[in-house]
Amino acid sequence: MRLTFRLVFLFLLLAALPALARAGALTAVEGMSSTVMQQHQSSFSGLGLRVRLRSAQIADGFELLPSVEYWRNSTTVEPFGIKTARKDATLGVDAIYNVPMANWKPYVGLGFGLHFLSSEVDAPTLGLEDASDSVIKGGLSALGGASFGLSDHLSNFLELKYHHLPGFSQLKLNWGITYTLAKK
Fold it and tell me: Phi and psi for 136 in degrees, rounded to 5?
C-alpha cells in the first residue's frame, strides 16, 4: 500500500513538472547528498531530489521547494548474528527566503515533511526473528544555507536542515547541485 502511494505521488510529481516549467513556476532542479545525524544514532548518508518553484503572486526572494529525501542505515554485529536496519523516506516542502547578495546567495526557510520511518531487527540468538516496526510522522523543519554559482545554469549549495520529529529528530548537512532552467 505504501509503495503504491509513493509511486503514484512520484508519477504525479513527474507529470506536473513540464506544466510547471511552461508556466514559469519551475525554476530549478536540485540533487543532494546528506550527512544525517538522527537522534540516538551515529551519522550516515542520505540522498534527495527537489525542485524550486517561484510564483508571481509571492514576494520576490521567496521560493517553495517540494522534495523527496531518503536514507537507510544498516548494521551487522558478528559473531552474535544481529542485523538491524532503519529507513526514512520523506516527502516534504520548504518555503525559503533568498537573501539578495552578489556572488553567493544565503537563504533561510521553514517547512513540513511527512516521514515514512521503519526499523527492522533480526537477532535469532536474542529471540527476535525478522521483527519490524513502521510509523508515519509529520514534522516541522528549519533550514539555512548558501548557494554558490558555477555557471549560468549550474550552482552548488551547502545547507544545514533540522527535522523536528519527537523520538526521531534529525540534523542534516546537505550538499548539492542546482540546475537552473532559465536564467533570471
Answer: -115, 125
Nearest partner of 109 among 147, 64, 69, judged by Cα: 64
Rounded CA Rg of the chain: 19
The pTM is what?
A: 0.80
* Overall average pLDDT of the 53-57 stretch: 83
Task: Assess whether pLDDT exceeds 60 at residue 58.
Answer: yes
Q: How many CB atoms within 10 Å of residue 25?
A: 19
Report the pLDDT value the prediction gives residue 2, as an integer from 0 to 100. 57
* Class of the CATH-defined domain 2-180: mainly beta
Cα–Cα distance for residue pair 111/139, rounded to 1 Å: 9
DSSP string, the chain: -HHHHHHHHHHHHHHHHHHHHHHT-EEEEEEEEEEEEETTS-EEEEEEEEEEE--TTSPTTEEEEEEEEEEEEEEEETTTTEEEEEEEEEEEEEEEEEPP-SSEEEEEEEEEEEEEEEEEEEEGGGTEEEEEEEEEEEEEEEEEEEEEE-SSSEEEEEEEEEEE-TTT-EEEEEEEEEEESS--
Q: How do residues 12-26 score in pLDDT, each as one tens digit?
A: 555 655 555 554 588
- pLDDT for 182: 72
CA-wise closest residue to 118 among 139, 73, 88, 154: 88
